[in-house]
User: Fold this.
Amino acid sequence: QPYDDLVQSFRVIEASDVLRREALLRYVRLYGNSGLWGYTPFTHNQVVDRARVTMNVIKSVCDTAVSRLSRQRPRPRFITHGGNWSLQRKARLLERFTDQAFYQGGLYQLAPKILLDAAVLGTGCLKVYRKGAEVQFESVFPGELFVDPADGFYGEPRNFYQRKFIDRQVLLRLFPDHYEEISAASRTTNAEDFTATALVDQIEVLEAWHLPSGRGATDGRHVICISNATLQDDNWEKGSFPFIFLRWTDPMLGFWGEGVAGEIQGMQMEINKLLLKIQRAFHLMSVPRIYVENGSKIRKSFFNNEIGTIIPFSGTMPQQVTPPSLNREIFDHLNMLYSRSFEIAGISQMAATSMKPAGLNSGAALREYQDVESLRFTTVSRQYEEMFMEAARQVVGIGKE
Assistant:
């Protein structure tokens, strides 16, 4: 059965992709200063340690970069070349059609989220699909997407997989012909994803695409299945997947991109360690110590907050000592790591803190400063614009359907 073969193949790919998914978990933890146990509704959990001192440079850099790049709202235009009035009118109507699809699908609201995924995780993903007679846009978490490492070695895989957990009642509404199979389906075939205490009834749904081998070929395939049934199995005639990928930095080899969190994670982890040491040192050494000579017959009750307290003593007078908590070099090293992280990511620390650089008082100087700072993100900005262009192409294709 197709579902049996697909589930087995997916489990093999899932096992071979464990290092990438562990890295994604680490990036999410560093960005959100939280604990994330897994990617499923049964394993994820947000645990924020509010008592710990933090200097989250990854969040500052990513949020600043996303705010800068997402200020623009690219709008695809359809331009004719030497066309008559009738063709120009069709271009204007096609432009209105894509505008309506963008606004109805909420693409401009999803775009910053996809850009943030690219900054933190390296790759942001937009899914474009048809639901009835409407075009739908969806931001997909990269941890739910899978590519065979060998298939994606050159960056152009021919097979793609998505895993998503959907409420059982919603799935019954989408595929009423498979009522018995969906009702009897287990939540997931992976024992690590299951938690008996979960009250929601969500089951694992796998969706896979296989691109045709060439133009006009009929070997393309699209399958949707659960653990015990194939819900949909049809031909896939398109030469691309229904996804648009936005990579912060293109990889030298492979499919998935590299983000800001992966670039400066070493800096952030060292900052976290230093802050923890500083916090412990302050708690240990910041309290004054009072040294009393043995046999001086001084009671502890003599030491209080009263003004003018008389403390009788014999022999050597008690001495209060407040030792230094840490060496100054530790704080200099911490500040160096924090500042250098911004330099590596290409974001000025002043931009992240909304401060104007000293000495730049004229509008022309500020514009020149912003232009120089924006050169670091030229490639990402072009990919961001191209995402809207590709979305328009897919909207037109779905409109034809």
